[in-house]
Amino acid sequence: MKTLTKEMQTAITPSMALELLKDGNRRFVSNLKVNRNLLQQANETSDGQHPFAVILSCIDSRTSAELIFDQGLGDVFSVRIAGNIINEDILGSMEFGCKVAGSKIIVVLGHTKCGAVKGACDHVEMGNLTALLTKIRPAVDDETTTKENRNSSNPEFVENVSTINVKRTVKSIMERSPILKEMIESGEIGIVGGTHDISTGEVTFFTDTMNLDS
């Protein structure tokens, strides 16, 4: 697998970027990862990097973007925070990844059985975690289909909240970053939300969050 160059990155469209991630996830699920010389990639990217995607995911130890999308060094910017939420620093990082470094797609990736989402469902308050979980709370409130057992003991409720949280984050990125919104609307970059099933490894993208060039 070749190390990404500026020329290769430039030739990738947002739709192509999504397909590269889908192909990588299929390899991961099939346990057929591409053979890479990571040490060579480290050397070849030492003078510059040209990732094709910015992936916002959870800190969960089972949701490493490079692994579940079968990507190598220099391929993706990986932003990780509990509950795959956004703040000013993460938005700035995304703006750098896309506007400065040339990435072609932003992915907001939730996952099943998310501990941060469960914490928000249970109204957990603990140190600095309290402020983080308040950013997920609107997704809990937006889940109106569940009338009983609105807590982490209800798996369906937790997954519904997780999905809503991802979709809210995609929307917030466009609302809070004029730079990224302009790039998305012009087709320069794309954005999409999805979820990673930690049991199977499979990533499902939400079609109603897709904003791509095609």
Give me the Rg, rounded: 17 Å
Report the structural category. alpha/beta
Calculate the terminal CA-CA distance, rounded to whole Å: 26 Å
Strand content is 15-25%
- Shape, please? globular
Oligomeric organization of the protein chains: single chain
Total of DSSP H or I helical runs spanning 4+ residues: 10
Uncertain spans: none
- Average pLDDT works out at 96
* Series of H and E elements: HHHEHEHEHHHHHEE
What's the arrangement of strands in the largest beta sheet?
Answer: 2-1-3-4-5
Q: What level of helicity do the residues show?
A: 40-55%
Strand runs, count: 5
Give the biggest beta sheet. Answer: 5 strands, mixed
What topology does this entry show?
Layout: H1 6-11, H2 14-29, H3 38-44, E1 53-57, H4 65-68, E2 76-80, H5 88-100, E3 105-111, H6 115-121, H7 129-134, H8 137-142, H9 155-176, H10 178-185, E4 190-196, E5 203-211
Parallel strand pairs: 1-2, 1-3, 3-4
Antiparallel strand pairs: 4-5
